[in-house]
Amino acid sequence: MADIKLDISPMYEGERIRKEDLWIELAGPKAYGFELSLATPMDQIEDGKVSVVGPELSEIKEGSTIPFGMVFKVGGEKIEKDLESIIERRNHALLSYVSGLMHLNQRYDIWLRMGKVLQKKGVTKWENIFKPIIDLYKAEMPFIEKMEITIITDPAKVKEEEEKARAIYIARDARAKGLHDEDVDVFYGCTLCQAFAPTSACVVSPDRPSLCGAITWFDGRAAAKVDPEGPQFAIPKGESADLITGEYASINEMAAKRSGGEYSIMKLYTFFDAPHTSCGCFETIGFYMPEVDGIGIADRDFKGSAPNGLPFSTMAGQTGGGKQVVGFLGMGILYYFSPKFLQADGGWRRVVWMSKALKERVKVGISEDMLPKIATEEDANDIDSLKKFLLKVDHPVVNGVTRTVDSKKITEGWTLEEISDEIKEKVIAFVEKTGGDIDTEAVKADLGLSEGQFMQVIEALQADGVLE
Ligand code: SF4
After folding, report:
1. Which residue minimizes the CA distance to atom 2 of ligand 1?
2. 427-447 pLDDT tens trace
3. Residues 6+ apart with CB under 8 A from 373
4. Which atom of ligand 1 has the smallest separation from the CA of 191?
5. Of 191, 193, 251, 335, best ligand 1 pocket probe by most atoms within 8 Å of the beta carbon
6. Cα–Cα distance measured from residue 247 to residue 268, given in angstroms and rounded to the nearest whole number
7. Which one of 3.40.50.300, 3.40.1470.10, 3.30.930.10, 3.30.420.40 gives the CATH number of domain 283-319+346-414?
8. I want to staple 375 with a disulfide (CB 3.0 to 4.6 A). Which of 240, 323, 379, 454 is the partner?
């Protein structure tokens, strides 16, 4: 074992392990798994030890995908609980420093691939990889004085420990939910994902938590304190240029500097105008559908096509890379519980569709009046069925969204771009049938038109001299 020397360097970060080079796949979309870092008293850590619960690497068949969990116990004089997430999040970079090892996502969404290059090196045990990882962690984060790793490959045990880890993630997030942007003078920035998305720079504020879901404001604070020159850093809040969109001079300055001039304005609470960048690690993706003037949101586990016809993976490909992509936005789960969730765009009143599992998961964060008005894949899977659903439930986008934060009407509601002869004939037949006694419910059900669209056609028919 001592003779195996892995190639470890930041230059391997971002390396993809393609199918033809794959030795073993860990967790990911075809299995399950988790990663967890735990601040642990020094006397309860056996420094440098790697233990395994379940099959050793040599017992796993080439080409297989297995459930996988990893628990890192970390200790040190400066280590506090808030640093757990920061250390855990560093897995994404540090594990990827190993040539032949790919690490994606975070928490219960992790997905690792081990390449044949590691097999060729003679790797047969988990400790061949994770002992050097301990050394790497200590070199990169010198405040870690002791570290011990447990690798879990027994499927039942992974499930069991994943449940426990989820409870820890929930507790971390719950703490973050109680704090708001008004309560603090400092936000935190994070550029950890610049290896994958060079112009990406995240802002983590109490009301705009990280899109990867792995770093809360408290985590940012702990990291910036222990390593001010590291990837998480303080952004003194200063004055806001616009409290509704969440525009701050300090954030714009940070964005211009950290993106190398790629963009110079980044607003916290909007989808449309200078939105937050998306590096690719987002837990969920939002997508604008101009046909209904509303926003849809899908989570990573959503396997079908959204009403815009695109699966998560395609949208993620278009959105990632650290650019501001108007029309798509990566968002973390915790943001759905924020009172400032897309507040400039109408918040929940602008959301028209969500993948069912995601809606269920965040439903306590959704405003009560909007909960039944947001479709899922069970209600709509294309634009036509979505339009019918939104008309039926009287969704605010149909007649125009008035945003809660300042009671300003920000959208006009649906209008017809073109009034075809076909729709005119349908409306004439409808008017004749109802004898001019117009019922808006019948307009919606029989014609598939909103009240505003119906009136547009009536006015056109009046202009044609067909109706009085
Ligand atoms: S997604 Fe953003 S906040 Fe999360 S680790 Fe990457 S850069 Fe940091």
Report:
1. 202
2. 999 988 887 777 888 888 889
3. 390, 393, 394, 395, 396
4. 7
5. 193
6. 7
7. 3.40.1470.10
8. 379
